């Protein structure tokens, strides 16, 4: 039997998809031909969606195309660790649940004795009161234990959940920037939103409820056997007959739920792309195509969900039967056993009550196992993030000096396609170096390598003799920092946004940094000055203001080397010149690499590196390069003419 994603347990989906429904000729009047064609088209579409769901699953398991998904072992080890570190509360949880379940199981036995007393006409009146009182007493005890068990379970679940969330956040924060940028945004967003939520629900509710239900089932079985082995066997045999259905479900469910998660990632990726590229979509009239792409993703996702639902339905149908049959079997076995004198009426009553009472926890076990399967699939996707290989292993060595030296840098975004071809560069401490060159020549890539964002394929970029990518991130950022055209404003006050790298900075330092980039005047005009809330949905900053906040943030971070990747491009030329002018004072004493389109930046720089096709072809001052009459001179004449 295949475990094909969209085949049901009997493979009917695949068969049906391959062979459109056959209508016998005598029932096929001319009017039905259209219907048959429509059915055929429907099955073909279904087949296509099934194939695409398979592709989504395959892509989600391919570490080159998608982010990793952990295996079952990693998920079990993760939950095992969470539980192991909470041994005491886990033990209390088990004890209270055992007491609650155990006391519940005494009740059928007491009721059985009550029936025997009533049956035994002579002694009827004598023991009835005591037995009835005992039942009431046990019910009260059971309520107390149940309350305690629920309370402990909730706290245990919440504690587990908090740790799980912390784990996810810290894992994501340690991801290399290069890897995050290379990932599909939709996938990452889906993992940290939907998957965290699903994992959270299964950890908080699924784990404790499964424990409670499992314990109740196990103790019920023990109680049934203690009550009467003869009456317990038929029910146990029926339950045992259900194991193939459960095993089939358990074998197939992980794939189904991982595929569901991957299809949600697809939906989010398409949606994010559409929103991020909305201008292009509008300009090229792509709305209809984007809507269609979204609909296709949803159709594939619905197909994956249908498969999961079919698995659940088949399982629940099998188990529902299994819950009803034991009651009849126990009654028949009881009647026969009673006629043979093997069991008394009390035992039959107790056995029937146990079987009836067993249905609920068994149902809960199956329900929670399903919930945990969904949670486990989400957890494997979340733990998969931790399997993203780090692009650096920080060492212990700290830089001895501030000189930045690049040696034979080669780098490729795609294997076999280098965009830098052996760049050598020795920065002079405190100099302003402008990097110029045609679009796509590799200027930004060089900037990323010089600021330690990416690891070169070969060669090295070292500061004070230590490879940038061998430095811990917090050390790296105080050595060299990259400021790009993207300036994210985080939700928070202006102050919060400026002091990100050094949270204990005093307000005077914040104002000084803002003043240095020409941003203090508008900040002071804000309703609450430094305390004004900015960021998504709050006070709106113009791109130029956002850029000033970002630059002020860098001044507070205080690295000795700055790589400015067209940092002033979003500001109009006059403001840009002002900003650069005010920055000049502050940048004094720092080494600055300015990657620029506008050649006036180059004109002001101490040296200029001209990058063409991933190589530095000219390096020198403005005057030297003009005298050279090469690439730079051409660019300069074109710019000034
Ligand atoms: N994330 C990426 N994935 C794949 N290729 C990339 C990526 N970023 C840049 N490239 C390619 O690498 C080459 C160098 O790009 P880079 O951005 O470094 O050039 P640039 O000189 O800064 O260009 P521009 O001035 O237009 O920003 C280009 O061919 C570009 O298409």
UniProtKB/TrEMBL annotation:
**Domain ABC transporter residues, every copy:** 404-638
- Protein name listed in UniProt: ABC transporter ATP-binding protein
SMART domains hit by this protein: AAA
Indicate where this protein resides in the cell: Cell membrane
UniProt-listed InterPro entries: AAA+_ATPase, ABC1_TM_dom, ABC1_TM_sf, ABC_transporter-like_ATP-bd, P-loop_NTPase, Type_1_exporter
Pfam families attached here? ABC_membrane, ABC_tran
Q: What spans are recorded as compositionally biased (Polar residues)?
A: 1-11
Q: Which residues cross the membrane?
A: 90-111, 131-149, 210-241
- Is Cytoplasm included in the keywords of this UniProt record? no
GO molecular function list: ATP binding
Task: Say where the protein is mainly found.
Answer: membrane
Species: Nocardioides cavernae
- Keywords for the protein's UniProt record, in alphabetical order: ATP-binding, Membrane, Nucleotide-binding, Transmembrane, Transmembrane helix
């Amino acid at each position: 039997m295949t475990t094909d994603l969209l085949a049901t347990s009997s493979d009917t989906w695949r068969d049906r998809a391959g062979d459109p429904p056959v209508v016998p000729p005598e029932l096929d009047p001319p009017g039905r031909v259209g219907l048959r064609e429509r059915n055929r088209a429907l099955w073909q579409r279904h087949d296509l969606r099934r194939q695409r769901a398979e592709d989504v699953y395959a892509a989600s398991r391919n570490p080159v195309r998608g982010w990793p998904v952990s295996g079952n072992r990693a998920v079990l080890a993760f939950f095992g660790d969470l539980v192991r570190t909470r041994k005491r509360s886990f033990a209390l949880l088990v004890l209270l649940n055992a007491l609650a379940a155990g006391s519940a199981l005494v009740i059928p036995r007491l009721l059985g004795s009550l029936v025997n007393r009533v049956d035994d006409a002579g002694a009827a009146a004598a023991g009835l009161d005591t037995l009835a009182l005992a039942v009431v007493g046990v019910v009260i005890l059971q309520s107390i234990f149940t309350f305690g068990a629920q309370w402990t379970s909730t706290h245990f679940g919440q504690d587990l959940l908090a740790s799980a969330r912390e784990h996810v956040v810290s894992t994501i924060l340690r991801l290399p920037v290069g890897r995050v940028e290379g990932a599909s945004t939709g996938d990452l967003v889906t993992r940290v939103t939907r998957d965290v939520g699903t994992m959270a629900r299964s950890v908080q509710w699924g784990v404790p409820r499964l424990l409670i239900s499992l314990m109740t089932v196990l103790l019920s079985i023990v109680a049934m056997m203690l009550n009467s082995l003869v009456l317990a066997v038929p029910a146990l045999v029926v339950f045992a007959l259900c194991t193939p259905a459960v095993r089939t479900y358990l074998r197939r469910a992980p794939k189904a739920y991982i595929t569901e998660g991957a299809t949600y990632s697809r939906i989010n990726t398409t949606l994010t792309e559409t929103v991020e590229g909305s201008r292009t979509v509008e300009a090229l009239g792509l709305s209809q195509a984007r809507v269609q792409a979204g609909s296709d993703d949803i159709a594939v996702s619905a197909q994956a969900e249908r498969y999961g639902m079919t698995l659940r339905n088949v399982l629940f149908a099998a188990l529902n039967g299994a819950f009803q049959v034991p009651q009849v079997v126990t009654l028949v076995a009881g009647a026969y056993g009673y006629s043979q004198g093997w069991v008394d009426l009390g035992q039959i009553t107790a056995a029937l009550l146990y079987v009836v009472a067993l249905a609920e926890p068994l149902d809960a076990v199956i329900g929670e196992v399903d919930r945990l399967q969904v949670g486990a699939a989400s957890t494997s996707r979340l733990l998969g993030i931790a399997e993203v290989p780090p692009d650096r292993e920080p060492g212990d060595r700290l830089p001895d000096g501030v000189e930045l030296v690049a040696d034979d840098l080669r780098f490729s975004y795609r294997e076999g396609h280098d965009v830098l071809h052996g760049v050598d560069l020795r920065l002079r401490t405190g100099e302003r170096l402008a990097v110029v060159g045609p679009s796509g020549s590799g200027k930004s890539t060089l900037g990323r390598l010089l600021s330690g964002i990416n690891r070169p394929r070969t060669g090295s970029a070292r500061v004070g003799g230590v490879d940038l990518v061998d430095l811990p991130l917090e050390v790296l950022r105080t050595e060299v920092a990259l400021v790009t055209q993207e300036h994210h404003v985080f939700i928070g006050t202006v102050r919060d946004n400026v002091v990100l790298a050094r949270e204990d900075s005093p307000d005077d330092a914040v104002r000084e940094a803002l003043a240095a980039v020409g941003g203090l005047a508008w900040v002071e005009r804000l309703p609450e000055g430094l305390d004004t809330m900015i960021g998504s949905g709050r006070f709106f900053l113009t791109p130029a203001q956002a850029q000033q906040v970002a630059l002020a943030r860098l001044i507070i971070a205080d690295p000795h080397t700055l790589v400015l990747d067209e940092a002033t491009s979003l500001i109009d030329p006059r403001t840009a010149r002002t900003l650069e002018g005010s920055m000049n004072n502050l940048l004094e004493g720092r080494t600055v690499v300015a990657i620029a389109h506008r050649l006036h930046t180059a004109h002001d720089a101490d040296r200029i590196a001209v990058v063409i096709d991933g190589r530095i072809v000219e390096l020198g001052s403005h005057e030297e390069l003009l005298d050279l009459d090469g690439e730079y001179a051409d660019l300069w004449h074109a710019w000034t003419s």
